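Changelog-linked ticket: EPU example.
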Amino acid sequence: MLIEKNVSLKPYNTFGIDAKARTYCNISNLEGLKDILTLKKDDPLFFLGGGSNMLLTKDIEALVLHLNLRGIEIVHETSNKVQIKAMAGENWHEFVLWCLERNFGGVENMSLIPGNIGAAPIQNIGAYGVELKDVFVSCNAIDIYSGDIKTFYKSDCKFDYRESIFKQDLKGKFIIISVVLELTKSNHELHMDYGAIKQQLEASKISTPTIQDISNAVIAIRQSKLPDPKEIGNSGSFFKNPVITSNEFEKLKENFPEVPSYKVSENTIKVPAGWLIEKAGFKGKRFGDYGVHNKQALVLVNYNNAKGQDIYELAQLIQKTVKRIFNITIDTEVNII
Ligand code: EPU
């Protein structure tokens, strides 16, 4: 097992932050992972997957284990359903393309989400009306302390909006090594309720869309709003959309009648953080090497060589300003390291 010293993590985080790993090890098979967990049992460890949901504000003193387990296989099949097991180091979008090539439906609305398979259950990734939990069957995860592998089924994972047990009670205790998803082989259930998808399909004059058409529509929408991390460093939505009570929402509406909203339950309402941040005057604001994306205010960007700490301070300023103007707390979706 090769342990390297002072490795730049810039290529391994989509924000493109040039933080260093004091020690770094690339893990490409399960045996290697088990070995190093035994060998380095008492050392501080830092697990890195696709690096698409983190902001590095400092160098990492712990041993960075870069998880690159690869492989996709069909594990179960019926006349209309297929269960696919993908290893944690597979790129999410490449997995979506693999499914589309075989006409397997269920993940097309989540096209172009950055990151790896292994991170998908941690924050229950989602976009355009579909979340991972809608297709999730189970995942295997390795207990960092004992090295045992445990299977977590959907009901074990406590999925919620950008939440799961892996971000809560089990944080730092397990590493996801593979995920099983169940997709359809025909009679796909299409999700087109999201306004932007409908408009995109209409613009392309598609009245009976396939899963490929939906994927194309989602890709077009994402490319029009969200910066490509290969060109401009970013981690997608930096904040979660806040969920507030109906009473709080009524007060907000008195001052801002035009505020967009989505009902979550009888008493709770989700307000788009992008709208709050735009109203607070931050959309498109650039501070040298970093700033707020000009097409989607929920996304903070690194134009070139920004420091993670600077972006973090901008995020805090945004949180404070939104709190002062709207009396709403917006939490980060991205992990601050
Ligand atoms: N809005 C603004 N200004 C902005 C951005 C948004 O006013 O700068 C308003 C829009 O007018 C719209 C509403 O906010 O009415 C919602 O915007 P959008 O459809 O872009 O979705 P979002 O709520 O901002 C969420 C996810 C995205 C996902 C989209 C589509 C979160 C935190 N973000 O964004 O996920 O792609 O919905 O489903 O839930 C991600 O997690 O990294 C991500 C990109």
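Closing comment: Example verified and attached. The radius of gyration is 20 Å. Residues 104 and 318 are 41 Å apart (CA to CA).
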